[in-house]
Each structure stands twice: as C-alpha cells, then as structure tokens.
Specification:
The chain is an alpha+beta fold. 36% of the residues lie in helices and 14% in strands. A three-stranded antiparallel β-sheet has the order 1-2-3. A hairpin with a 7-residue loop joins strand 2 and strand 3. Helix 1 runs antiparallel to helix 2. The chain is elongated, with a radius of gyration of 17 Å.
Length: 107
C-alpha cells in the first residue's frame, strides 16, 4: 500500500478536498493498483474512517510523535475498505466494442 496526501486532491465523488489517498493492489488484477480516498464529507458517517478523520482533525501533520497512532488508524481504515467493484464480462465486452467504435473519443 502507498498512502499519500497533497493539497488540492479532490474526492471523485463529491469534489471536496481529500485528506488521504491510498493505493492498494487490486484483488482481481494483480499488476494493478486501486486508489481509495479518505474524504471528510463522504466518509463522515463511515465507522471505518472515523478514527482517521478524528486524528487529522487534531493532527494536521504526521510527525514522529504521531506516526504510530496514524499507522494503526490507517491500517484499521484499509482493512475495512470494501474491495473495488467488479466489472462483468458483458459490461467489459460492451466497453471494448464502444471503444473500438470510437465512442470514448473526445470531441
């Protein structure tokens, strides 16, 4: 897992600034990473995220005195994240055909 945070990174769901993002191995595609975001808006009611959200409310920066607490809370969050959605073979095939027709090409 690779975790990172940088100012201005927006949540793909609500466009709010995220607190943290983590790249995890995709369970279905071993050579692919799947990114999960910690968003103060979208995750505010998620019990798995509550510890990290509270941590960052008090500690905007991780340092040597807070790293161990962050590590435990981040692992708890990651352990409880759902796997990424799976795409059915039919949906995948339909997307490939649409791509071949040029449906995904921009204007």
């Amino acid at each position: 897992m690779t975790a990172f945070s940088r100012p201005g990174h927006c949540c793909p769901t609500c466009s709010s600034e995220t607190i943290l993002a983590a790249d995890r191995p995709h369970p279905r595609f071993p050579a692919t990473m799947y990114r999960s975001y910690l968003c103060p808006i979208c995750d505010r009611d998620d019990p798995a995220a509550s510890g990290l959200l509270a941590f960052f409310a008090v500690h905007p920066v991780i340092d040597s005195t807070t790293f161990d607490t962050f590590r435990v809370l981040a692992q708890e969050w990651l352990d409880r994240l759902p796997d990424p959605p799976l795409v059915s073979e039919q949906d995948f095939d339909a997307d490939v055909e649409a791509w071949r027709r040029g449906d995904f090409d921009g204007p």
